[in-house]
Amino acid sequence: MHTTKLEILQCEEAVGLKLLAEGQIDGKGRSISAASGNGGFVKALSPPLLGPEDFNIDPIVNVESLAFNVDPIIPVAPRTKLMYPEVAAGAMDGAVAKSVMKGVVNVGICLTSLGVCAAYLDFLAATLPQVLGPLLGPDFGELEATLMVLPVMLVLVLLRTFKVLSFTAILGDIAVTFALLAVVTYGFATRDIDLSLPFINVKSLMKFVGATSFLFAIHIVVLPILHASKSPQSFAKNISTSFSFITGLNAVFGFLAYALFADDVAPAVTDNLDGGSDATQATLNAVKVLLCVDLLFTVPFVFVAGREIVERGVLSRFRDGERTASVMHIRNTVRIALLGCVVAICFGVPCFGDMVNLVGGVVNAAMGFILPPILALKLFPGMSLFATIGHVLILVFGVTALVLTLFFTAQDLADPNHSC
Q: What pTM does this model have?
């Protein structure tokens, strides 16, 4: 996954040079032809269409809109700041191929955005009854939990700026750290490590690929983070360092969770935190609540990627004079409708583990393992035989992971005895 992320960076630079050579951008990285897409690859949308609130969004927390929030006065040097859809389109030859590839990536980003939000909602719906059930009664179930958090989610997705949510970065670190410590501590206190467990299970391996892709195959945010970075030249090194650390940490945690809870390990391992004294249960519930709050306030950051693509598509159908007066109403309608899609997906796939497998093993596999090597092979035809074989193997792995994950997940969903 680390390799394909670096490929995205290399492809972005290659496409930028290609557009420069074709005369679609100038030497400062700005669009020359306003007829390209929605006004050019760089200045994809004009400020009147975006609205002033888009230019007030903190670039660090906006994962998709950075490509379209470029100040038209400030030059982008030495090359254009392209996003994933523009890179994919620029790698192709011919208007039809460009349009199709850009559409494919936009659809992938929307599905990832809505799918991750639905997975978070699944987690909230399953976890909150565990914590609040004893207080609100046995009738407080997943439906009631969903209805309880929906008003908060609605307010969050309607926000015009994320600056008010800047505290969530620290909150997320605290929540995840406490959750990791709680699971490991509770496991050692109540279980013994079982080293006789099978090392590989084919079906579980496919679920592992889905969960891993869900966590690591975040290719849709690589370029936005790069362009928001104060030191882009050190970005590749930072990716290597951070992903090596996170991979090691998750590998150790995954091994301990499996060795401690064995076949009883839940898709959301916090579901295994149950029992003990009143003080222990209160502590575990506090950890669950902290995670729920963190995921709830993470929703708008994930949601923005898909909703901006849909908003742009809807707003582009209006003339300048028409859309200016009603732009806020259009935006709000789109956001409410997309939140409705998230809820529908959540009810369609109510199990957190199944949702993670579908988003990670299908959508993220396509965006992270299939498209990057295709773009690299198209943009760098002169690569060595060894590099070509490596890219083809990554592509084959991505297709295999997608097909098998989809097959096993569909099998689980069709099983009437399947439980979360």
A: 0.76
